[in-house]
Batch of 2 targets.
Target 1
Amino acid sequence: MLVEGDLPNVRARYLALRALPALQLLEPEALLPLAESSSFARFRAGSWIAREGEPLPAVYIIVEGRVEVRIDTELGEDGESARDTGRLVADPARTVGFVSVLGQDPRGVSAYAHTDVLAMSAPSDVVLDLYESSFALLRNALRNAARAALEARRQLPPPIDPDEKIGEPPSRPLTFVEKILLNRETPLFAGAPIDAVADLAAATEEVRLKAGDLLFELGARADFSFRIHHGRVRCIAERGDSVVVGPGMVLGGLDVAAMLPRSYTAEALTEVVGFRIRSEDFFGMLERHPQLGMKLLSLFSRQIIDAAA
Amino acid sequence: MLLAPRLRKPEQRRDAWTAFATLFLLIGSHQMLETARDALFLDRLPPERLPIVYLLVAVLSLGLNRAQTRISASWERRRTLAFWLLAAALITLGLWLLLPLGAPTLYALYAWTGILTTLVLVPFWTLLGDLFTVTEAKRVYGMIGSGSILGAVLGSAGAVVVAGSLSAEWLLVVAAVGLTLTATLPLRLRPVAGAPAPDEDEQQGPWADFRVLLEKSYPRQVALLVAVAAISLTTGDYLFKSAAARAYADGELPTLQSLLGGAPVTLGSFFAEVNLGLNVLSLASQTILLPLLLRRVQVTTALSVLPIGLAAGGLLAALGSIGGALLVKAADGSLKHSVHKTGLELLFVPMAESMRARVRAVIDVVAQRGGQAMASLLILIFGAFVPPIAFAVALMVTSVAWLLTNGRLRLSYLDLFRRQLTDRRRLDAFPEVDVASLETLVATLDSEREGEVMAALDVLEREGRSRLVPALILHHPSEEVVARALDLFGRAGRSRVRGHVERLFEHPSPQVRTAAAAAGAALGIQGEAMARLRQDADPGVRAVGAVHCLVLDEDPRDLDAHLESLIADAALEGRVAIADALGHYDRPIGVSALLSLLQDPEPEVRSAAAAAIRRRPPDRDMTPALLPLLVHEASRRSAAAALVHMDDLQALEAALVAPGTASHIRCRLPKIMASSEDYEGAADRLSRRIGEIPDGRTRFEAVHALEQLLNKHPNLLIDQQTIQQGVEQGLRLGFRFLTLRRALERGAEEDERRRTPGLDLLLQALHDRAGNATGRVLRLLGLLFPQENFAGIRRGLDSDDDRRRSGSLELLDGLLRTPVKEALPVLIELGANNPNLDGAGPFLASNESGFIETLRVLLKERSPTVAALSAYYVGELRLKELRSEVAAVNIEAARTDRELALHRLDGDREEVYAG
């Protein structure tokens, strides 16, 4: 056990944070501000750490003890038993409230201490500030959230309505401004600063695939995401199940964010026109516009919650 | 200003006008009541009875406050005000009915006119304090306050009309009707909750409120100001009246009056005309001087105008000039009910709601009336035997005391906002490592949890205590832990663990064998064991073994060629391992191999090479090769760390401003420079070059890096002049984008066909740019005022909480000087509700151009996004007159949109848009 008694100094807090699997990839410089801003908190068995519908003043990292977080919010506790209860494990970092606070979910979270609990807490607004100002923290949170979202939706993207029409393919490549207009239609970029959308548009490469062409293969390195503009793509997971997706769908984004190999194979079913964005360019854009990174985190969190609800 | 309060929301504007009307009717009714009171009281009772009613007013005011709190504490504030206004109307009507009772009713009437203002004005201003933030209050209180002055003027005139045709008693009925009408207005205001319920253990009542007043610094200083002002004003009033009486007795009054242009010579008409003149002056102060003061200076400075006037008048009077007494009266009459009264009300607004509700009445009753009573008592005691000059000196002394109180209050006023914006982040330093902490850390190495052991290894290395890590950790079940420990031993030069390391050459895990080989190389293990690694089944292990053997065996002149050959033959893992292995030598060997690895097509290899460079002694020749690695996420972190290790500020500075540096690389350089050991040099280079940085994003990063340097080194000196220039440049830029945006908006208002998706994007882009310029200005100001919490101010400005936002604006107002002080708030609000951008001052370089001319300017913008959006928009509108400007757009990112626009401009005639 890393923490005995209160050990109130920042080293003890840093040590406790460093030991968390979800934070182990972080450089000390990125983790130190979080350690500096947090404090230890104890909860008796049977007490509520947070109640859904109430403002969440702080986020908690469970150091010792068992905490249950109710479905429709999130669960972070010290073992796998959370799944046995039929409730959601949304945060692999044994945390309470991070997904809600970083995802700015107004519903908050219900967290109940099953045993006596020792936790580290950090004020919600400070955590938001830290994640907005430190891209390393934000990138790490995106990686963890993307992994959880991938797991929650069982690797494959949601299918489309089979009757949905795909229309004619565009006759000419889109211009820079047309790509901006197109990007602005996505939930992530609606209302985003123009420079952010323009950065992405400038880095976007238009790709045309024939029916039967592979977009990417299961297990390949994930270094780009792909937004379908026209056509249909079949996505086939490792266990053989598949879905068909169409215009507007972004493929491979979660793999990229999770820094994992491709979780499925994507193959063109029809002629496909779409836009490829390299992960370097996408995350470079998020680093320049951290508010969009927070919004993406919010979208990932919503996917986790929706998939589990 | 009087007719157009600059408020963003229509409901706020409605509130402002409703408050104006309430005050106008209330004061008008009160004026009639006072006229009736004077006429009835002085007609039937001797003036010597007046001190009795003064005392009665003071006592009743205190008691009334207590009763008022009991009755309406938990009511919604609008209802409270409406209730007391209606009660006031009924009481006034009751007094009219009781007039036949004679003297008792007259005493009650006199006292009632005194306490009526406390009864309704305290809840009125408390309600307004809840409705408006400080920033809003500064905009509308002047207008609302003018309702009071207009009410007084028209109320007096109305009283004259009524009294001319009816007896004075009927003025009570008219006043009651006026108060009833006033009572209907508060419910038109937005609802505001009542004061928060006090804690159970919180003491209540006037005495408890008085104790709160004494305990809290800011309300106490406001109370002191109110008391000193009351003493000074009462003394001034006495000085003027006694001077006028003497002049009248000496027959000098006509001369005075002739100066004022009047003909009659009675004392009454003299006062009447003076009062008329002062009312006009007061109205002018309220509508012209007050808005000007509130825009230019802080509230506390505005509150200094009246005491300065009184002190000057006192000085003249002390020198024996009758003009001194007139100046005192002029200052009093023109400023007391305008600048002074509104300024005082503004001082209450930033108080917490619960605090304001508790201390407002106490200050009004105790400080205001107490001050008046004290001054009256002293005048009563000393007036008969002290020469008039003594009162002039007393006025000067009290006015100076007033000014000093203002000065102290200014600091407290700003502190109030600072406290509201206090950064709640707790930063305690990483403490010196002590024995207990070390015990915990070393004990943690025994943990079975991999994460805890890794964390402890990290902390021990970070604290320079690697030697405390026992060699037995190499037997830990986790491969990750063993590999991490081997890395740590290698870097720490723990030669005594060689035996343990050598045994791990046979470990089943390739990860551990690779780490062992690297540690073995670093620890100088030679001979058969090392040579065997060259035959290992794992390519990574083989590569490390090969590198080490080459380094040991080869002539340094041949080493590079052999390494190049090894790299050419190696697969991905092998190249990563070679790069890693080269990082274990503190001699400059394998430099060309590392340079080659830095250009490897695989990001993992490039990253490993950068990490290796970081572990070796700095070699600044590597700097140019490391810069491109900043582009890619996989190699960015290690490249940045290696560049920090190089500490080559000169090369980084050159890359920062060189036009050929890619923007994705450039924007990362300020942060790397700020990590230099030579932080003063870094700050100097960054601040000097900030104006030469070609792109806005990097300029922003440079400012951010300077902020971080200042946070870390508070005594760091940064060239203030350069930063000031940056602030001014940012303001000019911000207003330029605002002006361009407005011209386009106006164009779209003129012709709805100009509203297209392209216009939306263009407007948004200009809006964003103005916002970016504002953000940069705020950060630069943070560098100019390092002692202020500008991060908190920025968060406050971004906040959805109007009061936090207003607090930030007020702090800025207190810190900045003209013209930045006036311009920055306009830019922060992006010109909302300010069509002429009043306040932009010298930062507004040019007036708004026409629609076509604005597009012509935008097509020449350096920004690829703006140029592309403009070209696209011109194409959407088919504006043929801009064809040559579109054709001249020569930015690669805008190429496709230029072509599309030209195609549209040259294309189908049926679609031509007339513009």
Target 2
Amino acid sequence: MKIFLILLGLTAVEFVIALGIPLSVMAKPVKDTLYIVLTLAKAFYIVAYCMHLKFERVSLIYSILVPMIFIIGLLAALLHEGGHWLNLH
Amino acid sequence: MMWFFLLSDAFTFSALLVAYGAIRFSNSNTWPDADEVFQSAPGIDHGAPLVFVGLMTFILIVSSITMLMAVQAGHRNNKKDCAFWLFWTIIGGLMFLGCQAWEWNHLHHEGYWWSRIPTDKNVNFSNLFFTITGFHGFHVFSGVIINIVILINVLIGTYTRRGHYLMVEKVGLYWHFVDLVWVFVFTFFYLV
């Protein structure tokens, strides 16, 4: 099944980055960014193909995806807060 | 509709994970290293980071695929195949729960628990780890129960009589959501 191989492949890449590439070659922030990008890709494939959202009505797709903006907002707000707390410490 | 419940659940998990992010970020100098905390597996005492959680991730992804097979069998009104794939999805879920139980038990024996950490690192690591993986594990557990109920209904012919297997599709959405959350939990606790 193609979707299984895609998910397995993305996970395998994450493992290669984590275990196979030393920090001298790729710095932690770079690795972290790649992890997040790969995880978002996995999320896209699970939602689009496993949960079939890609093939549903456009109105359903938007009604699920658009509210996710609130999560982006929360993330931005709390990263800012976290930075502020870090400075307080 | 299941989709809208999942949206609300996504908000809940996001809130927990974002809170984890903020607390970890603001305490990054006292946060334990994931590779030092998680380096065991059954039979391997230390020195094997990511091995066990890799297995857990693999199990859950496979169970998502077996769930997909069950949904597709339902579309074809194939009772036997649907039951077969649902059964293996349940087994996958139980295997994941077993693994998570092992992980919790192992960490507990090392001194990790809510409000307890055996090293001089920040105790919020323990609090957040057990809370978030616990909440996720609870979802896996309820998903397994729901899947068992639906499997029984498939076997006694409820959906054949009904003329459609839409119920299998709905619980399939829930199960995929559980896998989706795990993908994020795995990334932010074990990788990043």
